Amino acid sequence: MGISVKNISKSYDKVMALKDISFEVKPGELFGLIGPDGAGKTTLFRILTTLLIADKGEATVAGYNVIKEYKSIRNHVGYMPGRFSLYQDLTVEENLNFFATIFGTTIQENYDLIKEIYVQIEPFKDRRAGKLSGGMKQKLALSCALIHKPKVLFLDEPTTGVDPVSRKEFWEMLKRLQKKGITILVSTPYMDEAALCDRIALIQNGNILEIDTPEVIKNSFPKTLFKVKAAETFKLIQDLGSYELTHSAYPFGEYIHFTSNNVDFNAKDLVQYLESNGHTDIEVNETAPTIEDTFMELSK
Ligand SMILES: Nc1ncnc2c1ncn2[C@@H]1O[C@H](COP(=O)(O)OP(=O)(O)OP(=O)(O)O)[C@@H](O)[C@H]1O
């Protein structure tokens, strides 16, 4: 009852959006597709929700084949696309009623499933969707995707453009939906959200770079990682870029994350190099890799 993707490829003219992608999502799993804009996430969602046909490969959702049994899939999945999922000129209640009617159900019939989310926007039920805040739009879109009690839920970048508090609440909500037995495939460009999934696939340029639990992916980082800071950040990036012992150097918050191509490298070597290049207020410390670091390493 999960999702199975086997050797799926899809091109748009010259752009190969998905290149021979394969993975499985187990029933009841919260699975994340993590990757930057243009990685191919939306294309994959559209194939799995039967809105687009792949050039090659096979996929099933909740046990149904995306081509032969597309009607069953449409009845059993909920899809919250990244954009344009709500009717801006309809009110909150009208949007929800509309989606319920399409699926031959009513708000009352499945109210239990959406109650927790919907009570937060119910005070605004007569407001047009176009006039809601980002966080409220997101809650309405999720309610609409859930109103027919789907077995599998597809959420394409549900937290993009949403404030940090609403993002946190949203993920807590996903965890509760998962406990009700719903399989969830969610995409996000935010690496911190990746840590909240059971398993993740890192995706870039239509390729899957890695699939595993967030913990294993973090721990698979192959090098000693240093966080580096100095008074002049721009010069620091340039000097690290041209250092012969640099394997990688990229901005990470207020620091530069650095790895060396020399296995015996230590922090003192780097401090010495930076001092000899006129840097001041130098900080070099070993740091634990994050999922983003693994992603950067794999996509090199
Ligand atoms: N209809 C289309 N025609 C031509 N190229 C397209 C079309 N849709 C997507 N692409 C291209 O396919 C690639 C994958 O796009 P896709 O939208 O699937 O990525 P994404 O990871 O969802 O990113 P985003 O968050 O920007 O939507 C990109 O290079 C994109 O420009």
Automatic annotation (TrEMBL):
Top-level taxonomic group: Bacteria
GO molecular-function terms, A-Z: ATP binding
CDD domains: ABC_DR_subfamily_A
Keyword Transport appears in the UniProt entry: yes
Keywords: ATP-binding, Nodulation, Nucleotide-binding, Transport
Keyword DNA damage applies: no
Domain ABC transporter: 3-230
Family: Belongs to the ABC transporter superfamily.
Protein name: ABC transporter ATP-binding protein
Protein's organism: Maribacter aquimaris
